[in-house]
Amino acid sequence: FFFALFECELAQFCTAPGSKKAMSLQSINPNAASVKGSSARAVVTNASRGLAETLSSNLGPKGTMKMLVSGAGDIKLTKDGSVLLGEMQFQHPIAQMIARAVTAQDDMAGDGTTSTVLFIGELMRLADYYMRDGVHVRSIVEGYTLAKEETLRFLDTFKKPVTQLPSENREAYVRTAFTALNTKLEPSIAQDLAEVCVDAVNCIHTPGKPIDLHMVEIMVMQHKLKSDSQYIQGLVLDHGTRHPDMPRRLENCFILTCNASLEYEKSEVNAEWSYTTASMKEKMMRAERKVVDDNTRKILALKREVCTEGQGFVVINQKGVDPLALDMLAKEGIMALRRAKKRNMERLVLACGGVAVNSFDGLTINDLGRATAVYEHILGEEKYTFVEAEKPESCTVLIKGPNKHTLGQLKDAVRDGLRAVKCTLDDMCVVPGAGAFEVAALCNLEDYLEKAQGHVKIGVRAFGEALTIIPRTLCSTAGRDDAAYVLIELQEAHKAAKKKGTDECFGVDTSAGGITDTNVLQLFDSYRSKRYMVNTSAEIASQLMLVDEIMKAGVQRGGRGPGPQG
Prior knowledge:
Blueprint: H1 5-12, H2 20-23, E1 25-26, E2 32-36, H3 37-56, E3 66-69, E4 75-78, H4 81-87, H5 93-109, H6 113-132, H7 137-158, E5 160-161, H8 170-182, H9 187-204, E6 216-222, E7 230-232, E8 234-237, E9 249-258, H10 278-306, E10 312-317, H11 323-331, E11 335-337, H12 342-352, E12 369-379, E13 382-388, E14 395-401, H13 404-427, E15 429-432, H14 436-448, H15 457-467, H16 469-477, H17 483-500, E16 506-508, E17 515-517, H18 518-521, E18 524-526, H19 527-545, E19 549-553
Parallel strand pairs: 6-14, 9-10, 10-11
Antiparallel strand pairs: 1-2, 2-19, 3-4, 5-15, 7-14, 8-13, 9-12, 12-13, 15-18, 16-17
């Protein structure tokens, strides 16, 4: 979309010599160009507004989707703002800067990407409107700064505390995850995955320790329907056993997690061993074999020592296991997996307990983990191994779907849902969604205008008006063409609730139309995403408004004459 936008913006100000627009474009050197003054402001404003208009139709549960087609012909369907900004290629520097800043916010908060882009675009549009009427840019920037600080203070009073953990007050966390997922998926699927996200974060959460979402494995399986996606209380490994006689299912298992080779390995340095007779060669081969056999016998001895009737034994090795060792383990009824991925070794220890050993010397029962069940699932030519534990500290979200498009869409949505639950658990509070916060902040800024003095009132008023882009866009994507009237109703409802002293928070009802109390529908956004939206948007817009010159430098290539080159 923005492949050639920057070049076009520069070109439209480069007209015949002597014209007013041509005066704004000056040659710095034969291969560079510069846009100054109002022309530079127009380039910046058009870029931010163009990016906002591109994403505006994706906002909310009724938003439409975008199809991204790569140079290789790969197709991706999504309405996730973070995915769109990450996948699209920008040549316009302003759009590129906004995209990078907003996607960084998504990594922290997991939501609010599209809202932030819309808010930046509206702030730039209103600033350009006032500056065209002669208002100095510093007046608007100072007003934006005051309004941002006041809005953040209001957010701390507007938030709703969550005083309990997911195990005690599950509904608040589920509704927060549902609000984040409902903007990207169908409501029925969003509800199921919201439950899955809460279970996953609750599994890895330990009071007093930071939450590491890397301990949640997101495994995709192209199988059945997306409604069959589920939470696994343990790990799912994307490979299985390599011996036909090994058991396919074991219950009440001991788990040996190791990173030690059970196969002959070549030396890391160049070495040569010469022999003169066949017996010398046979002796060397027996010595090599003895090392692997001795390690395998140590595992067999440990299995006989700890296992009783009805108990199983599983070996999961990050390194290799040769065929003879696999045969010895299979005869003893041991399930062995080799070449396990490095990222799963730490998760296995957290899920099952025990220690990831690097040697088979001195193995004891304290080195072993426990699992309630270990079983293999074969899907076509692919194998999956499920390791389920009783009280794991690492888990898996198993995503199922009939095709790659569905799997990719679900995977992106689950990541946002996990971050939304994590942020709620870290902040212990939520914020009413559906545009309720933005309208309430607008009403608060109208009261704040009475305290503000001087020319900064213009910036404060513009900031409050820009906040309404969220409820107005929600109305638009829901198919309503009376956003202005809905906005008036929301303001009146908020003022009436404030006058009565109730805790009602009114937002846009995208399903039934009109306005609704978000507390009744339990539509909650994470506190962190709203705080980042207000802070990031104001900072980026203020920086962009202060740009009074854009310089594009070029490099002269061999055989080409002077002129602006990218």
